[in-house]
Structures are given as structure tokens and as C-alpha cells.
Design a protein that fits this description.
heterodimer, A: 288 residues, mainly alpha, MetI-like fold, two-stranded antiparallel sheet, 12 helices, 78% helix, globular, B: 347 residues, alpha+beta, Rossmann fold, OB fold (Dihydrolipoamide Acetyltransferase, E2P), 2 domains, 6-stranded mixed β-sheet, 6-stranded antiparallel β-sheet, 8 helices, 37% strand, binds adenosine-5'-diphosphate, binds magnesium ion
Chain lengths: 288, 347
């Protein structure tokens, strides 16, 4: 076929293709890209006393020198890390169980594991308060058998951790389960056949096949938890607080939009960093 | 020296009796084929020997040692699965070395053994290939090598070549046979293809619905099928449902003298043992169609009631559709209540 034909045909296809991708691209630009740039601009072009605007990193300097802001960032990172550390082993165990067990019990476990997905965060928060809060169900039960009350996690950093872990179990389990689906029964049986016990099968056969799924799951949850709002707002302590509630309070209660946007930009940068880490490790795994 | 002994082994899945009171002894160095239609319990039986299913009843011993309750990783068996089940994240060398590493063998020894086995299956120099860079036949060879490298006492193969094309299947079948005889390894080979079983086996176990129909060397299974099921399953066979009366088998105008008591019976005749002659009068049957294969021809015969039979004849040109004929079986068997009550061979 002559080259001109190919070019001609390709040229004919361009407008249709562009038209097809145009709406989503435009929507992304309008709803995501533009607000990001405008937010960054608004935190860097600050009003000066003469009524004009000038370039300044004052809001960022303030954030990174203010111990209260830094504590909030630290508690956010801590919460995210602790949640991920709990989620991975918990969800991996559940996913492994669901992948290899069958029968009625497995169906119930699956239902239970997925259930939190259908519970709005706010309902979940109040449910946790009723159960684990002061004079909650656990306290009442302990009291009825004459035991002392628990040290409630409500309004401590562990409150959001418990809530966020529970809230993120479904998506993590589902992602890991889809990864485990790619590991065939026969490849596992073949490993048992050559002498691998359950632990060796897990380390040498299953784990190498699901590293991508683990990365995806961790990235999803880390991104979500880092910018979580409802659960830390309702269950967490007043200070230090996670970035979500911190931004909201700076914006609404302190009526300081510029500082709030600065906090948002910093949060966004962390999420971008996680995102880049995720994309790079997935790409590296693809190549290997 | 490895003898496999299976005693009264059963397996039920809920209400499904996959294997029912199965008995078999496989001698040292023997290759036994489990042959049967899909769903007859072949895989289930093999998986019980490999340890992947627990028997509902009965006992399995290898060299006199009970293995029924031993997990697969501790059994001296090696299994080759239908889909090769190679570990795709490892190259060929590591696929073979994995089991040896688990046994904590020294590195040199691992390398030596892996290379020796790769050589035996005709894949010398393929160690660094990833499994997806191999053809289907090569992948199955790797799977076989992965089992052999551990020098198992019993080799188990579950339709290992089912997904390969006919030509490759025949070649690999021969390679497996050669290798098995050279190593003298006791082997159980599952297949649903009669050709494979006839070509490979020292003995064939014909299975049906989890039970044994016949255990015999290939020629016996072919020449003297124990039941009508085996007769119909192995090779091509004409099975005619009829009745014996006063020393003659009757079916829709066709009669044949048989020395058995009166009663219902099934007559089994292979196409190559069913001679036909042009009928002087009306004849018991007529020619329906003639198919010429060059070296021989197959004549499709229709009996008075429409039942079809096949006869293998040397010359197609002698027969025309519609021709009235008589049937003269040279070798046949008569079955009643699932057992052969009479065999004749007027060769
Ligand atoms: N894990 C299982 N659960 C339930 N039924 C099974 C299972 N494995 C096999 N079966 C049943 O047992 C019977 C024998 O199966 P199988 O041993 O796979 O036959 P084959 O290998 O001869 O085709 C079939 O009816 C099959 O449906
Ligand atoms: Mg099978």
C-alpha cells in the first residue's frame, strides 16, 4: 500500500479520535488541572500592602516553620503509615482465605469483608463511637461482668486508624483478590508437588505474582487515607489533627482561605509523590 | 524399586461418587494408562495418589509405605498437569531448580542435575529462557523435566499432551515412553485417547463412572474387551442389541449361530472382522454408503430396522449403495449383563 494512503487514512481518523477524547480531557482540565494551577498561583501570588500582588513563598514558609502545622502533617503521615501497616497483613490474610477456601463460610467472610464499602463513613464513625466510645457497647459488656472500662480510642489518633482500616478493607481485599485470581491452582499444586510447604508456596509462588496488586492496593489506600476527612474529623483528636480536618477548620473556622489552600497544595504534593512511586514500581515490574 | 498399590480407594464429592472402591497394583518400572471418558474419575484417582485429594476410603501404599494421609510435598510422587502449570515468573532453570533448592542441595549439584535432565528432555541450553518464550511442546517438556529432576518414585501424568496438536502429541508420547523405559520409573498416565493408551501402556485400566471396567495389556483390551462399554470405547466396534433364541442371535432379520443360552444379548463385531457378501435373495441388510480410503474402504450397512453397522473391505469397487447383502462375522463376542459370555474367532 502506498505511503500516501496510510497518511491519508490516518489523517481522516484524527478528527473523530480527537472528538472522542475531547470531552473527558476538557473535563479533567476544567475540574482538576485548572484548579490545581489556580490554587498554586493563589498561594504564591500574595496581595501586598499597596493593593497589588507579588510573588512570595510566605505561606509555605509559615507552614513548614509552624510546629502546629508540622504536627498535623506528621500525624497524617503516621496515620497513613499505621493504617497501611495494618491493612496489608489483614487484607492479604482475608484475600488468601477467600481465594483458597470454598463453601458457605467463605461466602459469609466475603460478604463481611465487602460490607464496609456500603456503609457511609459518617454512619461508620457513629457506629464506632457507640461501640468503642466512652460508655459504648464494649464498656457496657465489660461492666456487666465486673471488668473496668476500656481506654477508648475515640478522640485519640487510634480512633481514625481503626475507622480508616475498617473502611479500606473492601477495596484492598478486592484488589488483592483479583491479583490472586491470576495465580492458577495448578501452579500452586505443582509447587506442593515438588516439595513446597504452604509458606514456601506463599513466598516463592504466590507473592512474586501479586506484587503489582499489592502496590496498587497500597497506593489506593494510602492516597485515600492521606486526604481522608470524615473519619479523622469525627473520631480523631482536636490536636494534632489530620490534614483533611485541618484544612476545613483553617478555611471555615479561621476564615483563612490562602493558608487552607497552601495546606491543600502540600497535601496534593504528597499524594503526587505516592502516585509517582506507584507508577514507577508498576512500570518496573512490567519490564521485569 | 517402586511399587504402587491402591486398595479399595474411593472418593466422593458430596453426592458424586468420583472413584468407587478402586484396586490396582502397578509393578516396578511399569507404565499403566488410566483410560476412560471425561468424568470417569481418572484425574481424581491420580490426584489422590499425588496427595491433592484425600481419599474418602481405602489405602494407597508406595513400596509398602502408607501415603494416604501424607501431604503432597512429602510424597515421593511427581505430577505433570494437563496445563503445564509452569511458574511464569521464573526461567526454565529456576523452574527445575525450585524443588532441589527446597531440599537444600548444594548449588553445583543443583546445576548438574538440572542440566542433565534438560538434556534428557531435549532442551539443553534452554535454562535461561522464560517459560512464555517456549512452544507448547517445549513447555510440557519443561513440566516433565521439573518432575523428573527430583527423581520421584512414581511419575503421574494427567493428560499431559491434551492441549497439543496430533503430530506433536505422537512425538512427545514416544519420547515419554523412551524416557520412562530408560529411567525405569513406575508411571501412571491418564488419557481419554485410546490411541495414546494403546501406544504407551504396559497395561490399560479402562474406567467408567469411577469404576474399573477392565485391567489388561493393550492387545487384550483391544481383542478381548471385557464389557460392551470397553468394546465400544476402544477402537471402532459394531454393537448390535438383540436376543438369542434356540442357539441363534437375532436382530431385525440378521441371524448368527451362537452357542449360548436364550436371552437378551449384545453382539460385538469390529468392522475389520465383519465380512459382507452379496445376497442371493433379499439379504439381511443393504449397503447404505461406501467410503473409499484407498488402502481399504468402509461400507456403511443398514439393517432391516435402520440400525447402522460398518464393515471394512479391501476393495470399494465391489460395493454399491442399495445392494442387498448378507453379514458374515469372522470374529465376534456376545455380551449379556455386562460380561462376555462367548467369543469366537474364525480367523
Ligand atoms: N473438586 C471437585 N468437586 C466436585 N466434584 C468433582 C471435583 N473433582 C471432580 N469431581 C467430579 O468427579 C467426577 C470425576 O472427575 P474427574 O476425576 O475429573 O474425571 P476425569 O479426569 O476422568 O475426566 C466428575 O463427575 C467430576 O464432576
Ligand atoms: Mg481429568
Amino acid at each position: 500500500m502506498p505511503a500516501s494512503d496510510i497518511v491519508g487514512r490516518a489523517r481522516g481518523r484524527v478528527p473523530t479520535g480527537l472528538l472522542l477524547v475531547a470531552p473527558p480531557v476538557a473535563l479533567v482540565c476544567w475540574m482538576i488541572i485548572w484548579p490545581i494551577f489556580s490554587a498554586i498561583a493563589r498561594t504564591l501570588w500574595l496581595p501586598d500592602p499597596e493593593g497589588g500582588r507579588q510573588l512570595s513563598v510566605a505561606t509555605y514558609t509559615f507552614f513548614f516553620t509552624d510546629s502546629y502545622s508540622l504536627n498535623n502533617l506528621a500525624i497524617t503521615l503516621w496515620t497513613t503509615g499505621v493504617c497501611a501497616a495494618f491493612l496489608l497483613p489483614i487484607c492479604l490474610s482475608i484475600a488468601l482465605y477467600l481465594r483458597f477456601a470454598d463453601g458457605k463460610l467463605a461466602a459469609y467472610v466475603q460478604g463481611l469483608a465487602i460490607f464496609p464499602m456500603f456503609v457511609p463513613s459518617i454512619i461508620l464513625s457513629y457506629a464506632l463511637i457507640r461501640v468503642l466510645g466512652p460508655n459504648g457497647t464494649v464498656d457496657l459488656l465489660l461492666n456487666s461482668v465486673g471488668l473496668p472500662k476500656i481506654n477508648t480510642p475515640y478522640l485519640t489518633p487510634w480512633g481514625p486508624v481503626i475507622g480508616l482500616v475498617w473502611d479500606n478493607i473492601p477495596i484492598t481485599v478486592l484488589i488483592l483478590l483479583s491479583g490472586l485470581g491470576a495465580v492458577s491452582d495448578q501452579s500452586i499444586e505443582a509447587a506442593r508437588d515438588v516439595g513446597a510447604n504452604r509458606r514456601s508456596v506463599f513466598w516463592h509462588i504466590i507473592l512474586p505474582r501479586i506484587t503489582n496488586s499489592i502496590l496498587v492496593a497500597i497506593s489506593f489506600t494510602v492516597l485515600g487515607i492521606f486526604s481522608a476527612f470524615t473519619l479523622p474529623y469525627v473520631l480523631g483528636p482536636a490536636a494534632p489533627e489530620m490534614m483533611g480536618p485541618f484544612m476545613q477548620r483553617t478555611f471555615r473556622d479561621l476564615n483563612d482561605p490562602t493558608t487552607a489552600i497552601t495546606q491543600a497544595v502540600i497535601t496534593f504534593c504528597f499524594c503526587i509523590a505516592f502516585g509517582i512511586f506507584y507508577v514507577r514500581s508498576v512500570a518496573k515490574n512490567r519490564k521485569a | 524399586m517402586a511399587v504402587l498399590d491402591i486398595r479399595d480407594v474411593s472418593k466422593t464429592f458430596g453426592s458424586v461418587h468420583a472413584v468407587q472402591r478402586f484396586n490396582l497394583t502397578v509393578a516396578d518400572g511399569e507404565l499403566v494408562c488410566l483410560l476412560g471418558p471425561s468424568g470417569s474419575g481418572k484425574s481424581t484417582l491420580l490426584r489422590m495418589i499425588g496427595g491433592f485429594e484425600t481419599a474418602s476410603g481405602g489405602q494407597i501404599t508406595i513400596d509398602g509405605e502408607h501415603v494416604t494421609r501424607i501431604p503432597p510435598e512429602k510424597r515421593p510422587t511427581g505430577m505433570v498437569f494437563q496445563s503445564h502449570a509452569l511458574w511464569t515468573h521464573m526461567n526454565v532453570f529456576r523452574n527445575l531448580a525450585f524443588g532441589l533448592k527446597l531440599r537444600r542441595l548444594p548449588r553445583d549439584e543443583i546445576r548438574r542435575r538440572v542440566e542433565a535432565v534438560l538434556d534428557q528432555v531435549g532442551l539443553a541450553g534452554y535454562g535461561q529462557r522464560m517459560t512464555h518464550q517456549l512452544s507448547g511442546g517445549q513447555q510440557q517438556r519443561v513440566a516433565l523435566a521439573r518432575s523428573l529432576v527430583l527423581e520421584p518414585k512414581i511419575l503421574l501424568l494427567d493428560e499431559p499432551f491434551a492441549s497439543l496438536d496430533q503430530h506433536l502429541r505422537e512425538r512427545l508420547r514416544e519420547e515419554v515412553r523412551d524416557l520412562q523405559q530408560r529411567l525405569g520409573i513406575t508411571t501412571l498416565f491418564v488419557t481419554h485417547g485410546q490411541d495414546e493408551a494403546l501406544a504407551l501402556a504396559d497395561r490399560i485400566v479402562v474406567m467408567r463412572d469411577g469404576r474399573t471396567e477392565q485391567i489388561d495389556p493393550p492387545d487384550m483390551v483391544y481383542r478381548a474387551p471385557a464389557t460392551p462399554f470397553v468394546a465400544g470405547f476402544i477402537g471402532s466396534m459394531n454393537l448390535i442389541d438383540g436376543a438369542v433364541q434356540n442357539g441363534a442371535f437375532h436382530h431385525a432379520g440378521f441371524t448368527l449361530a451362537v452357542p449360548v443360552a436364550d436371552g437378551p444379548a449384545i453382539l460385538a463385531v469390529r468392522p475389520e472382522a465383519l465380512d459382507i457378501v452379496q445376497a442371493s435373495a433379499a439379504g439381511a441388510a443393504h449397503v447404505h454408503r461406501v467410503t473409499d480410503f484407498g488402502a481399504h474402504a468402509i461400507v456403511d450397512i443398514e439393517l432391516g430396522d435402520g440400525v447402522r453397522l460398518k464393515s471394512q473391505v479391501p476393495d470399494a469397487r465391489l460395493w454399491k449403495a442399495g445392494m442387498a447383502i448378507d453379514l458374515q462375522p469372522r470374529a465376534f463376542a456376545v455380551y449379556r449383563d455386562d460380561v462376555a459370555i462367548h467369543r469366537a474367532d474364525r480367523a
